[in-house]
Amino acid sequence: MRGASTGRVGSDSPPVDPAFKRLLMYLLVGTKGGFNRLQIMKLIQDEPLNPNKIGEKLNLDYKTVQHHLKILRENSIVVTSSPSGTYGAMYFLAPFVEKNISLVDEIWARFGKR
Q: For the chain, what are the domain ranges?
């Protein structure tokens, strides 16, 4: 489906599902906590972390981190190494998000520099 209007991010990027792009824009730009969620995603893009480490690195309260991870998990943006709610569970970007990381990078470039 080359050349079709499928939401390309860049010339070298694969097509991005428009529904996924709308979801990310809403979760990361269109809501009050979006900047924190974007920071969390960028952080765990490099290495899986547990909520405590995420809070330390971003200077966020543990409960705040848990809240944002819950939202990201409910929207299939992140996955955990063990059942949700387990202390010390590591968080990773979901495989689909990793495949479309160029969209997250674009959102970070446009909106993440606060």
A: 18-111
Give the predicted TM-score (pTM) of the model.
0.79
92 confidence band (pLDDT: 50, 70, 90): very high
C-alpha distances in Å from residue 71, one per residue of 6, 23, 76? 26, 12, 9
The two structure tokens encoding residue 68: 């944002």
Long-range contacts at 27-34 (CB < 8 A, ≥ 24 apart): 27/71, 27/72, 27/75, 27/77, 28/104, 28/107, 28/111, 29/107, 29/111, 33/67, 33/68, 33/71, 34/111
Burial of 113: CB neighbours in 10 Å, binned 0-12, 13-18, 19+: exposed
Residues 6 or more apart in contact with residue 54 via CB below 8 angstroms = 40, 43, 44, 60, 65, 69, 91
The architecture of the domain spanning 18-111 is Orthogonal Bundle (1.10)
Residue whose C-alpha is closest to residue 89's, from 107, 65, 57, 105: 65
